[in-house]
Amino acid sequence: MKKRFTISAVLLTTAVAAGGVFHLTHASSAQRTAAAPSPVPIVSAVVTAHDVPIYLTGVGTVIAFNTDVVRAQIQGQIISINFVEGQKVHAGDLLAQIDPRPYQALIDQYTGNLERDQAQLVNAQANQKRYDQLGTQGWATPQLVETQNAQVGQLQAAIKTDQALIEGAKVQLSYTRLTSPIDGVVGIRQIDVGNIISPSTTNGLCVVTQLDPISLIFTLPETVLPQVQQQQKKTQAPLSVVANNQDNTIELGQGQLGLVNNEILQTTGSIQLKANFPNGENRLWPGELINARLLLDTRHNGLTVPAAAVQQGPTGAYAYVVGSDNSVSIRQIKVSQVSDGQALIDSGLSANEQVVVDGQYKLQPGVHVSILHGKAAEEAAAQDALQAPIP
Question: N or C: which terminus of the chain carries fewer CB neighbours within 10 A?
């Protein structure tokens, strides 16, 4: 009886142990099933090959093509203002009138002197003719003839002087008309009607600024100077320059490089360049701060990806590449430039590969991903922008 009880106890213990093993094995399997990670949703883009412009970017200031201060060359009272501030004017347009009466009076005076001297010359020439006849007949002394000849010469010189004085007075009279020296836009009026203006008036009448064409002076690092010179020699034509607003959201104009300055700024280690732009719509304005992009070259079949795909790590730039099995791997890349939201890749990627452009902060090498498209991709990008860790 005791032996039978012992056997039953052993069987019961074995069954319990077996049940425990089964339970642990089943729980472990369930845990493994539950721990299997789901694919991480990401947004991807394809590496594309196309012609890519190579830009050198600098900051510059717009300057007027020509700026002229309209000053008086004579002194007088302004009797009329013939422009409105901000008005477009052409070369030769009347801007203001100085009282012309004093200068007209001088012309009248010199003209009277000229007519007097001309009348005296006619009389002297008549006497000269008579004295010459008398001299040939012996009735007039040589001294008398020579004196009369000298008088004729003196009057002829006086007439030339009178004519020069009249021309000079006419020039002075023309200075009573203050005209625009160039085509442009008139600035703020510096003096009012009734005031006396003279060559010493500090600010003159106004400033006329030529806006079309217009110029842009910008700087680039001195290290790029050999590249610019090489490209100028290669193309034998002016390089193109694009002008953008400060945040690069609006293109304001396209022009041509006109000058590479003849010295490097030692204080900043940069070189100044000047570009000229057609500006019929006045999108560029003097004094405006501009981002200038100098088109250096065009790379044919260059590889580009969205700039968001480029990440920075301890060893440099890298990108997450999506493999054929939808797993990601890290690929070290070399970026040539970033422009217009696109990164030009020198090495590390191939055409038609897929790279992750959003959701990188959730990834590790080997993680499987699911690629979002359309509206889902936009929503994920917006959500990730809020959740992504601040670098």
Answer: N
